[in-house]
Design brief:
3 domains, six-stranded mixed beta sheet, Alpha-Beta Plaits, alpha+beta, 486 residues, four-stranded antiparallel beta sheet
């Protein structure tokens, strides 16, 4: 009898969870998404099927026959719509032999899912002409707002109810070290005690290629479980690092971090800006160590890498747009460093937008980070993103950037900022300003600056490989390390 390998994926989980500017609702959205796995297990107990892999908002199931598959496919989108109103799912399936050999099944499944993502299901309830609208989202209203006047849509009401549920019900407080569970993660902006925040998105490198190389369902199941465990261990270690670095007399009601999505190899969190880089680095290094320790379950694919994007934003910035920027930075880091003949190295890309977040990272490279050299304009010339987590002398690596930011502390920050501004439009004037800064600077401080630049591969003054400079990145990072954004 034919078996069927089925997979569903929720579309835009992070956008669904972050589709609000209220942190309490974000916490509720996280709980809603976390509850999907429990709902899936309950549903499979009724329809039949073996759960092969599950993460935040996606799962792979093996059905023993077509009847159980048809029952599940018919009802699962309805159940998800009731559990998480407004969250849409795509689903696909493929027949597999009874031997459990995949033989290209995962590639076919991935193609079918990609096709289904282009199909948009109607939102329920339908927005008729006589239906009231939620003032914050413009979607059909289903209830009056609990605070103030106006109405809320179904997704907002569901997030609010989940947030009021407190601990449990899919909350992520389990990611805290056991001795730190006396307080929850932040549930309101005021709990951060700062307006300078960061949205961090981390994703494993080369996962699609690695998964497609698996030959059997048993291998796929063990690989997925080991990857999930490594991600949870890395997230717990990174959160523990942030909490452990707080002063002993820290009296806040909550720990200043908010996990949004943690599942598979995909992680999104909101932190204080000052904690973001250390959190991300700890996660990537721990993920590397944890996957190396699970090399057997990962079928010789241990010591896996991950890349990250960090959007440094203000408290009032729309979180959904901040996430879009962080995700695009992560994708940029992977694409820039991807290798055809080996694994993609772990790297971090970051940015602090100074204008509207409604622009893409590609547009930022062409406008805010445009530099002009004697040979002509250089798109993205004012950044050396992405930075390798474990790099060597002469490469754009994180240790070198941190050293550069520290070296700049002994030099006038205003002059460096002015140089970065002038470098966008007038290369000759920028060169004059650079020479003038060298003349008036302390000799020892200037040598430290030059040494740090050279460690990043900058052999032409502030300019490095491909006509780019790390100075603007170092200015941003130095201000965050000093706990004050410029």
């Amino acid at each position: 009898m034919a078996q069927y390998l089925y997979r569903y994926e929720a579309k835009g989980i992070q956008s669904y969870v972050l589709g609000t500017s209220r942190l309490r609702e974000i916490a509720g959205g996280s709980a809603v998404v976390e509850g999907l796995e429990q709902l899936l297990r309950q549903t499979l107990a009724q329809t039949g099927g073996s759960l092969e892999a599950a993460a935040a908002g996606n799962a792979t199931v093996l059905f023993p026959n077509g009847d159980s598959l048809r029952d599940f496919v018919r009802w699962w989108p309805v159940l998800v719509g009731q559990h998480a109103p407004g969250l849409q799912v795509v689903q696909a399936w493929v027949e597999v032999p009874a031997s459990g050999r995949l033989e290209g099944s995962l590639e076919v499944l991935a193609r079918r899912l990609a096709q289904e993502r282009n199909r948009r299901d109607p939102l329920i309830p339908e927005a008729g002409p006589l239906l009231a609208r939620a003032s914050r989202t413009g979607r059909p209203a289903v209830a009056r707002a609990t605070k103030g006047s106006g109405f809320v849509d179904a997704a907002t009401r569901r997030r609010e109810r989940a947030a009021r549920g407190g601990k449990g019900a899919g909350d992520m407080d389990r990611l805290l070290p056991h001795h730190r569970r006396d307080r929850p993660f932040v549930r309101d902006h005021s709990d951060f005690r700062t307006s300078d925040l960061a949205v961090v998105h981390i994703d494993g490198n080369d996962m699609g290629r690695l998964v497609m190389s698996l030959s059997s369902l048993a291998d796929y199941k063990s690989f997925s479980l080991a990857l999930k465990e490594a991600t949870l261990a890395a997230a717990t270690a990174a959160i523990g690092m942030v909490v452990g670095a707080l002063p002993p007399d820290y009296s806040g009601p909550c720990w200043p971090v908010r996990p949004v999505v943690v599942g598979g190899d995909d992680v999104t969190v909101v932190t204080r800006a000052v904690d973001a880089l250390a959190f991300t680095r700890t996660f990537i290094e721990t993920f590397h160590h944890e996957t190396a320790a699970r090399e057997r379950d990962l079928h010789g694919r241990g010591a896996l890498g991950a890349s990250a994007g960090i959007a440094f934003v203000k408290e009032k910035s729309p979180f959904s747009l901040s996430y879009d920027l962080a995700e695009s930075l992560c994708a940029f880091a992977k694409e820039r460093l991807r290798r055809e003949d080996g694994p993609t190295p772990s790297a971090i890309a970051f940015h602090r937008p100074t204008a509207s977040l409604h622009v893409t990272w590609e547009q930022i490279l062409q406008t805010d980070l445009l530099a002009t050299r004697p040979a002509g304009p250089m798109i993205g010339g004012l950044t050396m993103n992405p930075y390798l987590v474990a790099g060597q002398h002469g490469q754009a690596h994180l240790d070198g950037l941190v050293a550069l930011a520290k070296a700049m502390k002994d030099l006038p920050r205003g002059g460096l900022r002015e140089w970065a501004r002038v470098a966008q439009h007038d290369p000759l004037r920028a060169r004059d300003r650079w020479d003038r800064m060298q003349e008036v600077a302390d000799a020892s401080a200037w040598k430290n600056l030059v040494d740090a630049l050279q460690s990043l591969g900058c052999t032409d003054g502030p300019w490095g490989p491909r006509g780019r400079t790390p100075l603007y990145d170092a200015i941003t990072l130095g201000a965050i390390m000093a706990k004050e954004l410029p």
